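Friendly challenge for the regulars: who can give me the structure tokens for this chain first? No prize, just bragging rights.
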Amino acid sequence: MIAYLEFCQSFVNNILNSKIKLGNNELDVNEATVIPIEVDKDEILIETLSPIVTYSILFKHDGSKYTIYFKPGEKEFNSQINLNLLNKYKAFYNKLDIEKEIKIKSFSKIRENIIEYKGFLIKGYSGIFNIVGSKKLLEFGIATGFGEKNSMGFGCVKLLKNK
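First reply, four minutes later:
Bragging rights claimed.
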């Protein structure tokens, strides 16, 4: 079994044995399924289920921080997604056996989403994207999310087509 599938199965088993708090509500999960995603080509089409977020934190002359968000089509959007995905892959597998970075570009009209979370504004982008790269990295990105702030639910996608 692929390592991240083992993690997902363990996560699902824990959810089934505990209560989940959503807002002020406690929920019991009665059923959950882990669906393996197989990428069999080095080009895929994905649709975002939640916005993809990429950013850098910069410093002003006075030392204060500010965040700059990148949008599809900007060179930094692609490079930040690559860097984040490679870092997650290396942290998970404790190795980096990927030869090819991914290239992501919009395939449809892209929507800008501005979300307020705990008093902060977060900017992300939704739509359909074409991504080319290593099959292993593409599969890993679908499983873990593309971009940053995945633990907050951003960057979740579904596979539309292996091209």
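The beta strands are 19-22, 25-28, 43-48, 55-59, 65-69, 103-106, 111-117, 120-126, 128-132, 157-162. Residues 75-93 form the longest helix (19 residues). Your move, everyone else.
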